[in-house]
Amino acid sequence: MVPRCYIPAPSRQRVTSVLLILFGLLLVMPAASTLGSSATFCCLAPSCGAILADHGWLTRHHSTCASYRQFQQEQLAMHQQRSMSGTIQVPTVRERLSAKRKAPPGLSERKNRQRLHSPLTDLNLQPHLPGPSIQTPQPSNHDPIPPPPPEPSHAVQMPDDTTDSGRPKRATRLPARFQDFVPDVAPIEEVSVSTLPRVTLIVRNRFKTLMTSVFGLWREYLYRPSYDPDSLIEDADLAGNFAPNPLVGIPSESTVPKAQRVGTNATATLLMDWKNNGNVTKSDGEINSLVRDVILDPAFNADELVGFDASRANKQVDEDGKTSFPFMKDFKTTTVDIQIPTGVKRAPPVTLAVPGLYFRNLIDVIKAAFTDPLSQHFHLSPFKLFRKLHGHDTEAIRVYSELYNTDAFIAEHDHIQRHGLLPPNNPECKREKIIAALMFWSDSTHLTNFGTAKLWPIYMLFGNLSKYIGGKPSIGAEHHIAYIPSLPDSIQDRIKSIFTKWNTQKASVLAHCRRELIHAVWRHLLDDEFLYHYRYGIVVTCADGVERRVYPRIFTYSADYPEKVLLATIRENGECPCPRCLTPKSELHLMGQIQDLVNRGSNLIRQYLSSKIAKARRFIYVFGLGVRSSKVEKELKATSSVPTVNAFIDRLGHDFPLHRMLVVDFMHEFELGVWKSLFTHLIRLLYAMPDGPSLVAELDSRYRQVPRFGIDTIRRFATNASEMKKLSARDFEDLLQCAIPVFEGLFSLPTTSEHDLRILKLLYRLAEWHGYAKLRMHTDHTLNHLDMLTSQLGTLMRDFQQTTCTAFRTRELPREARHRHDQALASGSKTSSSTPKSKAFNLNTYKWHSLGDYVQSIRLFGPTDIYSTQIGESLHRLLKRMYMLTNKNGHERQLAQRYMRVARARAAARAHRARQPQHFHLVRSGLSDPLGMVSLRVHHHTSWARRSPIDIPRFVGTQDPAMKDFYPKLQDHILGRLQHREFDGDDHHDFTDADRNTVYVLNNALYATRTLRINYTTYDVRRDYNTVNPLTTPFVMMRAPDGTTHPYWYCKIIGIFHARAYRSLSTGTTPPVSMEIMWVRWMGVVPECPGDLEAAQLPQVGFVPEDDPYAFGFLDPAHIIRASHLIPRFAGGRTNDLLSTRKPTAARSFDETDDWKSYYVDIFADRDMLMRYVGGGVGHLDCGTSSFDSVPPHAEPGPTLPTVTLLQPPAGNATNAEGSDLDLEDINETDVAVDDGDDEVTEIDMENESDEPEFYYDEDYGVGSEEEEEIENGSDCDSQLDNNDLDIHAYSY
């Protein structure tokens, strides 16, 4: 456990005292110097004799004294003469720089503590930061950390120069090893700076942290933080199964509320907490939770449930929750008043009360959030994040990953520190000033698939919390603020009786009322209490027991375009449809051009026109003019403004950045906007070509043949992708990532070949832009590249519109024509026809124009996943689940009540966990996984069950061409690994038959398993994994040797084995060694198509022909980087030339009789894959090691990582050191030890953690589990994702 790092912040009183002392010294020193008995500052020239009052006057005198200049020349001439005569030795510049300097006091102890804290101590990396250099002491005999071993050369010779048969050994060629360091959170340590800080009345106390991270990351704080919440992050928290430990490092005097109790009945409390966990389905996970968290709890007593009534218990839970969590107050309900114009001159407007607003006080929500145990993860002091690689002379680059390390947060925090007001009743408050970064989401949603029930919720999250925590709905970091009411159905009858021009202005009046409603709601939320605390801050006792003054600030508001225009008080699709700038609608297609950049500049930034809006409202409410009358349009139409007073401007002031708050919406603007529009038009183009329906059918067939990748990275496509039925944003994302192989060749007719190349290049740049815009961690380099891509994409899209689109007469798709016809019939039209009409490709849309705002938004507020509307969409799930439990009558009230029960139950669970003893060794995964405790640190793992061995002689005794030379190649592979040779494709020409005959596999048995999990560090310094399966995900990638044209090697996994091998030498038999072995079919890069980022071409690979002696081979899984997504090149077709047999073979799937000629490497499968090909990923550094393999003596030095070892050797019928027989079946599968690099090995008892799954034996793929089979078939993927489980496979020893 990493201890909390408390850093004391300087108090204002202490700073004031220091300033007074300094000013006093400045006043006293001149007087003291003149009152002294003798002057101490004299001119150095003997012939001058001038006496000065202080050193400053002496310096000025030397600059004008002729005697001093003559004295200097004489001294210089004397020095040169002595040097030439050899009397004095003048050191060179290099000698002076390399001379030993005395280390600063305490530096050695600080470095030792840092090394002992970091698991990567053997790297011996020295921080390199810009600014004053830091001299470190040279290692001595007393240094506790030994120097690192010398790095291996590119030609490593084995210690023994000859083989067992007497032949000389060759020097093996080392391939490049991929870099995959495990993320490690280091405590904040300040860089010692020799220069004195500037003393001002406003002390910023800026400092930089040491570059303790192996990834070269360091921080620059403008103000010293009171503590670092990242020091609380554990290794398991760096993956997708984050379950924050609520009180690591919190002092004992912390004010964490106690868990709620239903009266005095602990059993009823357990049961009601389980009921109010937010889940409503009777899944296996929920049943497991019921048994584990309720029935098996020591406090559970069935006798206490006699006479239990759920309705009565719910009421008691509500009452206890109000006492235990005083800041978590219930929803309130009220009516919202809006002003309805009458359309009559001088007639006062009519106030219409809209009932049904359910809301929570914003100040109460902020107080509850900062007192919750989850607030220990809040970042209270923003910082700039930089990266500088060790040993590189390049400048440090800026990194953007969270809201709290962006320019907007830093600027606002600095403003609060310098100009934050204090309340009049406490002007001398010394509490720390911090910001509550508010981020809002709102979106109207349907609660059922059928029916009219809907809800319009407003959610709020805190930007102080990491997106990896707050972005998970299961964490419960979101806060429901309000449920916006809809205009009642009866309002039309009421307005019709009020407004005299209803028949002609019905649509405009209703639109005006909707705008008035949402701003009336926000005017109610931003009440006087909020404004007071917005100005003077809120005094909150945080979860660590420290009182701070919290200033709420609104940073972002995420919504789709129809809601954006309501919040921005502009007209939807008007003359200037953008809510952030005033670019005319006629120029929206120019996105990426210089003119577009000028339009987004300062001259056309949208401003709130308060005077014109006030004038327009006078026309409507005083003079009785229409909402869209000519005088109103004259004032507002040019800027697409509307006559509604904006609540944010009205309450927070005219300097509030309203239009900057409305951030980009990647999901709706790009995935469901630009890309969906382009994909739809590409289908229209296919229909417009000769034999169009056949081409569309071919496109659907190709999409069906695209293999899935990962659990949910690339899913199976629908039967007819061209129909686009019920597709979500993630489905359109998959369509784009796999589009190039699918569309290739469909436009390659003799007269349209140029269009095919143009479309493929456009799809490449579109997928590249998509990947960069969706990165979770940006740097200055990636943002510059994204800016360049935006300009290129604009050029390519306009070229596509002006050339390819004009070459075809495109019409509506059949589904579009049917939809238009159905809508016309529903509206009462009798002249509508279902015949497809002409349809052109349109770029004059806001969604296309918004792509130019992404770089600026990322620099201001961080990566797009922080404020994506996808977060709001995911939060709808809880409301939809709870709606199923209501009686459907007045569901808003029931949902508000049920949400508060869920929120309090989650808070109670966090408080309950805070008081429990922390067992950090426990597996936090969904399935029984003995490797789960260290699964983040090992490179790979798989099942080591040996219940059903595969006999090697029988296994290879078939006519399968994949079995050719199976056993000799296996011996070569094992022998190379036993001799610790670096892998070079098992090209061991120096091995003889005599060498091979010394290699034996224990019991002649291989043990097959179905899956292998590969852990790797992602570009954003997180841990992720791929599951390799010979049937579903068989392709993997590894680093290619240095000097090759392509950076990676590829192969297809045929089988996953493990075995125990040993050597029988003349000197004796070596102990058996366990090793995992991948049986692979090698692939090679197509020479003509190695992939070109500049030319927008994907890499192509193909199988090595069977006549090559290395078409099949074996691979150590330690060399695998991760799984690779290879898509067949459908335009190239299939062939039998690579493997001539048409009979069943292990090299192919059971339903295949030939092979694809080549495959495309899908570098756009996910963002991590993209960054591995384009470079710049912060987390892509070094390779990891398996938990079962020791690092070979000649391997590159790697990080010191914990490993998993059995308390007994896992030998099947082997012999231990004492000579006794061991059998794997006798090993207790619940006894596992964690080896953390120390001398002691701690035993961990994992019994009662989870039931062991039943294993089965598959004749083709060996041992597996029922849970493995279920997940591989995709039947349980959603439940695994919902439970945030990291480990998806069961393992047994």
TrEMBL record:
Signal sequence extent: 1-33
Concerning Pfam families, the annotation shows:
Plavaka
Q: Which InterPro entries is this protein grouped with?
A: Plavaka (IPR041078)
Keyword annotations for this protein? Signal
Q: Biased composition, Polar residues: where in the chain?
A: 80-90
Q: Which residue windows does the record flag with biased composition (Low complexity)?
A: 827-837
Region described as Disordered? 80-170, 815-837, 1263-1293
Q: Acidic residues compositional bias: what residue ranges?
A: 1263-1275
Q: What is this protein called?
A: C2H2-type domain-containing protein
| Native organism taxonomy | Eukaryota, Fungi, Dikarya, Basidiomycota, Agaricomycotina
